[in-house]
């Protein structure tokens, strides 16, 4: 089996890592968890970050086969549709994105979202196998953060874990999104990810630690089992659920949750233009958080 080439790109405004994973023999590649630039204060979409990835592809002579999403992100806008238009590739995500679409189709009161996942080119089920050139990939269903999360295990030696788990000094993803579950997350991490061989490399989607010396993107199963404060060896499910749920009760909503999800359930596409030819991202009022002011005035 060919050992994959991996390039990482850090999007500082959202603390997100995007990866290019390439087969050295065929020069075919996948892009994992891409990001569009979004200026919230101006409502302006741009693609400077995505364009740096395109420059890398051209510089290294890579052809895109896959545009992989680990889940429908709530903290950044996906660049998958933009990249597909520029460099090709099939946009893929876990099949349970249907549940996420169905919830947020109602949440945003939109009619163009299918609810059946057809916005994506391919939906993966647990255990599915595919390849990036000559590099094999196995899909692990790892829900809990959201009901649609998957991990991509490449060459049985490196795993792209999305938001399930963070660096060993930080912990795990939150579980308070719609249909999230701390019990599911514990089982996904312990039974699927941390049951992999100890030397397996885990590639992070984020590094949120503000006091770290710099953004960190890779660790190992061994390090997580030894040091992760929430799911290290010896942590029971009940202990994890108690701590994770107590943390989630006081967390603020992610900064980009409202714009990002309505783009990401459309596989990175913008909402359709309205009668004036302008596209709008909706901002639902008083639907997140507690103690909301009545708007009947």
| Low-confidence residue ranges | none
- The outline comes out as globular
Whole-number tally of structural domains:
1
What's the CATH first level? Alpha Beta
Please report the distance between the alpha carbons of the first and last residues: 65 Å
Give the name of the CATH superfamily.
Ribonuclease Z/Hydroxyacylglutathione hydrolase-like
Proportion in β-strands: 15-25%
Alpha plus pi helix count: 7
Q: Considering DSSP H and I runs of 4 or more, what fraction of the residues is helical?
A: 10-25%
Mean of the pLDDT scores? 95
Q: Give the helices and strands as they follow along the chain.
A: EEEEEHEHEHEEEEEHEEHHH
Q: Which architecture does the CATH hierarchy give at level 2?
A: 4-Layer Sandwich
Number of strands: 14
Radius of gyration: 19 Å
Specify the biggest β-sheet: 6 strands, mixed
Oligomer: single chain
Provide the structure class: alpha/beta
Strand order of the largest sheet: 1-2-3-6-7-8
CATH topology: Metallo-beta-lactamase, Chain A
């Amino acid at each position: 089996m060919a050992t994959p080439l991996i390039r990482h790109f850090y999007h500082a405004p959202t603390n997100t890592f995007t990866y290019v994973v390439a087969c050295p023999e065929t020069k075919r590649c996948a892009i994992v968890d891409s990001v569009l630039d979004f200026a919230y204060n101006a409502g302006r979409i741009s693609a400077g970050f995505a364009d740096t990835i395109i420059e890398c592809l051209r510089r290294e002579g890579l052809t895109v086969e896959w545009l992989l999403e680990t889940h429908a992100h709530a903290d950044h806008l996906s660049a998958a549709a933009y990249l597909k238009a520029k460099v090709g590739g099939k946009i893929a995500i876990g099949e349970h994105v249907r549940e996420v679409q169905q919830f947020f189709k109602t949440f945003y009161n939109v009619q163009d979202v299918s609810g059946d996942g057809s916005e994506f080119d391919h939906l993966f089920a647990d255990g599915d196998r595919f390849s990036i050139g000559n590099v094999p990939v196995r899909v692990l269903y790892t829900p809990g953060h959201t009901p649609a999360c998957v991990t991509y295990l490449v060459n049985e030696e490196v795993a792209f874990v999305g938001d399930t788990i963070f660096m060993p000094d930080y912990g795990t993803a939150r579980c308070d999104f719609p249909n999230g579950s701390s019990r599911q997350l514990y089982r996904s991490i312990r039974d699927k990810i941390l049951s992999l061989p100890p030397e397996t490399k885990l590639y992070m989607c984020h590094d949120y630690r503000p006091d770290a010396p710099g953004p960190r993107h890779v660790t190992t199963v061994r390090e997580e089992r030894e040091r992760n404060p929430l799911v290290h060896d010896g942590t029971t499910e009940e202990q994890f659920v108690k701590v994770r749920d107590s943390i989630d009760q006081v967390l603020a909503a992610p900064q980009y949750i409202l714009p990002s999800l309505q783009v990401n359930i459309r596989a990175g596409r913008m909402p359709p233009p309205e009668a004036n030819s302008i596209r709008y991202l909706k901002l639902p009022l008083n639907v997140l958080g507690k103690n909301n002011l009545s708007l009947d005035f």
